[in-house]
Specification:
globular; single chain; 208 residues; mainly alpha
Length: 208
């Protein structure tokens, strides 16, 4: 499972073939099964092959993380608020103001059942399995952002691809610096929850 041919094939199937297939019209149950068994495979490889231990490092620089994340969130909140105001101001904080219970529910489900699995796949698994093949760190991070955006191709929305590419860059840089799935998951959850809160959730598949 650690040969070059095996890993290249694995990368192509997990990060290229399966995401593109999800954009095609076929049974959602088959898609769900592919996603479920694919995720089980990734957990197996992380635990049994890569020997990862799912524990929180005692050396995390929480102060620096929160400072940097909040600064980035401030910039994101300004730009996205202006975007929603200009394109459709009726959506601005619509769910938060009119459906607060749904808002809380979605934030919880999204953070724990969507964000964390995504980060295990696109940061922890990706970095552990394929970094050895890249001498150029910038290229490695760029490709990570590309495949992360490709994972959202089933939305068939150019803006979603742009946003997820930019988000992929931010998350890849955070993981590359911290090597922490927990920290990058928190950052991912914060930005994703903000997009839902500000009124951009519909295009990202959030119920409204």
């Amino acid at each position: 499972m650690n040969s070059t041919i095996y890993k290249v094939s694995e990368f192509f199937i997990i990060f290229i073939l399966v995401p593109i297939s999800f954009a095609l019209n076929y049974s959602p149950w088959i898609k769900l099964s592919l996603g479920f068994f694919g995720f089980l495979y990734i957990i197996y490889v992380l635990l049994k092959v890569e020997k990862k231990k799912f524990k929180v490092s005692p050396n995390l620089d929480w102060k620096r993380f929160w400072k940097q994340t909040l600064v980035k969130l401030l910039a994101i909140s300004v730009f996205t608020s202006l975007f929603v105001w200009i394109t459709n101001k009726e959506l601005l904080f619509n769910v938060l103001l009119n459906k607060p219970k749904l808002w809380v529910f979605i934030l919880f489900v999204y953070s724990f059942f969507s964000v964390y699995p995504q980060e295990l796949i696109y940061r922890t698994f990706y970095f552990d399995r394929y970094k050895m093949f890249f001498s150029n760190e910038r290229l490695f991070i760029f490709i990570n952002a590309m495949v992360f955006a490709l994972a959202h191709i089933f939305f068939r929305n150019t803006l979603v691809l742009v946003l997820t590419f930019l988000g992929g860059l931010l998350f890849a840089l955070t993981y590359n610096k911290t090597k922490s799935t927990l920290l990058v998951s928190i950052e991912h959850a914060i930005y994703g929850c903000w997009l839902f809160t500000v009124g951009m959730g519909d295009m990202l598949g959030f119920p409204a």
